[in-house]
Automatic annotation (TrEMBL), chains A, B:
This is Homoserine dehydrogenase. InterPro entries: ACT-like_dom_sf, ACT_dom, Asp/hSer_DH_NAD-bd, HDH, HDH_cat, HDH_CS, NAD(P)-bd_dom_sf. Its EC number is 1.1.1.3. The keyword Phosphoprotein does not apply. It is an enzyme of class 1 (oxidoreductase). It catalyses: L-homoserine + NADP(+) = L-aspartate 4-semialdehyde + NADPH + H(+). Keywords: Amino-acid biosynthesis, Metal-binding, Methionine biosynthesis, NAD, NADP, Oxidoreductase, Sodium, Threonine biosynthesis. PROSITE patterns: ACT (PS51671), HOMOSER_DHGENASE (PS01042). Pathway: Amino-acid biosynthesis; L-methionine biosynthesis via de novo pathway; L-homoserine from L-aspartate: step 3/3; Amino-acid biosynthesis; L-threonine biosynthesis; L-threonine from L-aspartate: step 3/5. The active site is at 206 (proton donor). GO terms for biological process: methionine biosynthetic process; threonine biosynthetic process. Pfam families: Homoserine_dh, NAD_binding_3. The gene is hom.
Length: 427, 427
């Protein structure tokens, strides 16, 4: 008879039920991969009586975490309850009970990753979290194992499915931000409080995990320069399109001369760039390595089964380690101390929309402000706005974040209105 | 002092010198990743006196394989000599000497993969070969670890950089097959005997490795239905383009109802498909998993540093295993016995070019031939060819390989000339 590996789930929402389903439906492949029978034994839920539409396939519901922690037939704990404080406590207690943990909880990892990994190592336990970034795309493995020998220079990608869906609809169907948000909420793609998605916080947490792994440097949420899509307008998208760009919520993490910068912001990408073709809820992450050049990982960024697949692949890894007797031996999360890049060293191109009086001399004043900061123009588009005012759209050549901030301050002091400012990447 | 892990190279061509360079230049990251000092100690070459443009960074050249096999300070043997028989013998002897092996040799893996993996396991050795497929893209790790829990349904991709470069030039610049081959040879992208690339043999070997890993089924080179790009004409590309397609040399491996089919052939892809945008020497592999849906891995398919990066990432994996005491424990190559798909069960759409007499009734005869096999048309394009003959281009709806073969035989017997026949994928 095959050895049985017991799994305990904390949480039984969309992802949790997907995990139960995959373990059940892919039973044969699981056995082939691990040589074991991997069985979900218990599931901790808040309310045992609640009607559930997913079959339990023999698992037992409980409201009591101790039922899992004290069950010696349960070897792997899968945390899919979400939230941070309670989830962290349960995971730490699971390690103390010498159990291994798989989680899809990006908030938790971004906030307490190092503490959790240290606790895992102390207890000889495994901790895996592939599902925490870009759902079904095995990007963390790609970074940690596949490109282990290369020096990662930059990671850039679309890591939030909700906002990518919204921006796709806004771009392709001309829907307003408010309209597409309501639609996404109705379809269940966006939460009733969409802050985490639309303000870029979710993407920022994923970039923290990617940057930490990519650069072996422990960065924090506070180190990410975050801007969301709340203020993106149809006019922004149309003018960007006229100049050959499409807008995406892009996370970047870059190392230069030993210092890193991490940002999340609505960013313009040339229409011909592969990231421009990543539509709807799909995610894609570009990795630039010194030796390998550019590679891209593309796939569904969320969704029940893709996310559950990543969780179950982590369970497979843990079970293999259990069989080989190699659990608790993951290499450290981040071995280098953190050095953040100075704003004067963070370079990119920028797209600006400025409203100004349509009078002789104002365009010259605008130009002077840029020249003063040594910024040259790549593209310019001027359009009449109304009888008295003009709209000027500028795409700069590469310039530093510090310089662009100084230009903005200077325009402001000259009564020109900076309507929008976006980074341009991928040219 | 750090533990030193000794590496012995067999072969010192492009990839070998890239390995030496990356180990040297990324020394700090290697130490961080593995906790060891990874040093190339000896390199086996045919001719010690030959002028070499790459620095050796302290490695010692030898013409004698025993210098590596008998050196107990060498733990990892990297085979980058190419070829199959001699390389196989050296690798088997390395295992007997209890050394671990990393190779980039796809021909060897496609032909003798199982034997080598068994020999590795018997001797407690590791054998890794990420670089053998799609150079810098960590696709094998993606298949084996990242999607371990999913049931892989189909793997489809561009896995040969030379032919992709050639087809890109033919499509975008209108160059003939002969012209672009000469150009590729001059640039060093194609060998003086280009057979392995242009006849699809190289791609077929990679598909053998991908199919074996994806389906855990030991398939052989003979199981691949291979067609190369030698007979692709400008006219084919132009007519395909008129109907919205671009041509790529596509490898597919598909499992349906427990049986697999593997093919390599010039294939038409809709221009909007992400694979259509994979240009020049880049590679990309789509993986369709039952649960995850579609994911794609994209990157440089060849080249010194991308390939060397994959080799060195494998060395990192081996060194980690050495430190953890877990070498020689890779799971088996292929645990299921082989079942090949019947031609009547292999379905796809087809693009056909037929030349026929421009007379009343011939088009009806053509149509009847298709109706007889129950094949319906998706697109039709008829053009005059000369005074007496017409060219008809047909794209069928999905049909079986067997049916399309019968139609071809039937057209042939009616004196219609089948000029070209290509599969259509990705719609």
């Amino acid at each position: 008879m095959k050895e049985v590996v017991g799994v305990g789930l904390i949480g039984y929402g969309t992802v949790g039920s997907g995990v139960v389903r995959i373990l059940h439906e892919h039973k044969e492949k699981m056995e082939r991969e691990t040589g074991c029978d991997v069985v979900v034994k218990k599931i901790v839920v808040r309310d045992k009586e609640k009607e559930r539409s997913y079959p339990l396939h023999g698992a037992q519901l409980t409201t009591c975490i101790e039922d899992i922690l004290e069950d010696t037939s349960i070897h792997v704990v899968v945390e899919v309850m979400g939230g941070t404080e309670e989830a962290k406590e349960y995971i730490l207690r699971a390690f103390e009970a010498k159990k291994h943990v798989v989680t899809a909880n990006k908030d938790l990892l971004a906030m307490h990753g190092e503490e959790l990994l240290n606790a895992a190592a102390r207890n000889g336990s495994d901790l895996y979290y592939e599902a925490s970034v870009a759902g079904g795309i095995p990007i963390l493995r790609g970074l940690v194992d596949g490109l282990a020998s290369d020096r990662i220079q930059k990671v850039m990608g679309i890591v939030n499915g909700t906002t990518n869906y919204m921006l796709t609809k806004m771009t392709e169907e001309g829907v307003s931000y408010e309209g597409v948000l309501r639609e996404a909420q109705a379809l269940g793609f966006a939460e009733s409080d969409p802050t985490a998605d639309v303000d870029g916080l979710d993407a920022a947490r994923k970039m923290v995990i990617l940057a930490t792994l990519g650069f072996s440097m422990k960065v924090a949420f506070e180190d990410v320069d975050v801007k969301g899509i709340r203020h993106v307008t149809q006019k922004d998208l149309q003018l960007a399109s006229q100049l050959g760009y499409v807008m995406k919520l892009i996370g970047t993490a870059e190392e230069k001369d030993g210092a890193v910068s991490i940002s999340v912001a609505p960013t313009l990408i040339p229409k011909s760039h592969p990231l421009a073709g990543v539509r709807n809820e799909y995610n894609a992450v570009y990795v630039y390595g010194e030796a390998v050049g550019q590679t891209m990982f593309y796939g569904p960024g969320a969704g029940q089964l893709p996310t559950a697949t990543a969780v179950v692949s982590d369970i497979v890894t843990v079970v293999k380690h259990m069989r080989l007797g190699t659990t608790g031996k993951a290499m450290s999360f981040a071995s280098r101390s953190k050095v953040l890049q100075d704003d004067s060293n963070i370079h990119s191109k920028y797209f600006l929309r400025v409203h100004m009086k349509d009078e002789t001399g104002t365009f010259l004043a605008l130009t002077k402000s840029f020249v003063q900061e040594n910024i040259s123009f790549d593209k310019i588009l001027q359009l009449p706005l109304d009888d008295e005012n003009a709209e000027v759209v500028v795409v700069t050549h590469s310039t530093s974040k510090k310089q662009i901030q100084q230009v903005c301050a200077s325009l402001d002091s000259q009564y020109m209105e900076m309507v929008s400012l976006y980074r341009v990447e991928g040219e």
